[in-house]
Every structure is written in C-alpha cells, then in structure tokens.
C-alpha cells in the first residue's frame, strides 16, 4: 500500500514539475504522459518507460503528417536532451511544449539545434547546403542543381552572417529571424503547421486560442 502511495506522490510531483516548466496545464500534462506511456517501453536497466526513435517518427507522421526522415531524426535529437537515443516522459512533454506552444525565443533555439547537425554551436555552409538539398524539390534540367543550392546558401549567409565568419551562430540566427520571422524554418520544416498544431492541442484537451 505504501508503495502505491509513493508512486502516486512521485507521479503528482512529476506532473506538477512539468506543468511549472512547460506551457501546458495539469490536465494536458497528464494526457501527454499517458500518451507517452502508451507508446513507450522499458529499455536497458531502467524501469522507466522511454520512447524509441522510430515510434516517435511514426507519431510525427500520424499526428503532424511530417514525412522528411532527415528532419524527423533531427527533431528527435532536439527532443532527446540527454542524447541516450530514447525520449523520457520529461523530454516528451517539454519537447512538445516548445514544438506546439513555444515562444519565438524558444522556437529559435529549437530550430537552431535541429539545423546544427554536429552540435558545434554553428550552422555551417555545408550543413545549410545539405538541408536545402534535402528539402528543395529540384526540377530536372541541364543545369547542375547543386550550383543553384550553393548560390542560395551564399545569399542566406550574406543576409544572416552578421560577423562574416562563413557560418551562422545562434546570435546570427536569432537576429535574422527577429528581423524576418519567415527565416525561422529556412532549412526545412521542423515545426508543425497551425492546422495540425490545433488538432493535436484539441486532442490533449488544451485551450489553444492563444497559440
């Protein structure tokens, strides 16, 4: 009996902590935790449920119609704060807090992390090229499509690279996005559309009028 009470107290503390740290109310946190538990399993020595990368990708497709494997993998890595290859219940809730209801500042840090493939604190010319090559639909012409992408990379660097070091720091990125919000997802969509955001928020019982 004491064990059940201890589990209930631990669960209550987790819900309260996640409510405080996120943009979700207590009922929404509880529904997200139930969703995580339903889609997670135990791995290794830990008895705490954690979600596998592939299941997370499946949910991104099912709930938000995301299909780009490269970007979905990067989104997973942005959620996976401890980089253990799984999503804990806390990573799941806090990740969705930014993904669905984050402030511009939170979303800028999140998208920068998605695009910074080697986690060195910069978006390099090479990373920009690879993301654009992956996300842009190129028409079959006699011209080399890579050349057009390289030109686009140079235009973006010219516009966004404030300190002229041929790569984007978080400061460069934030300054450019604050001036032109459309640059937030310049290297490919890594946030859900408004339509699917509202649908998912309704699913978890969230008042989404302010999103």
UniProtKB/TrEMBL annotation:
MF terms (GO), sorted A to Z: calcium ion binding
Pfam families linked to this entry: EF-hand_5, EF-hand_7
Name listed for the protein in its UniProt record: EF-hand calcium-binding domain-containing protein 1
Keywords: Calcium, Metal-binding, Repeat
Species classification: Eukaryota, Metazoa, Spiralia, Lophotrochozoa, Mollusca
EF-hand domain sequence ranges: 67-102, 103-138, 148-183
SUPFAM superfamilies (UniProt xref): EF-hand (SSF47473)
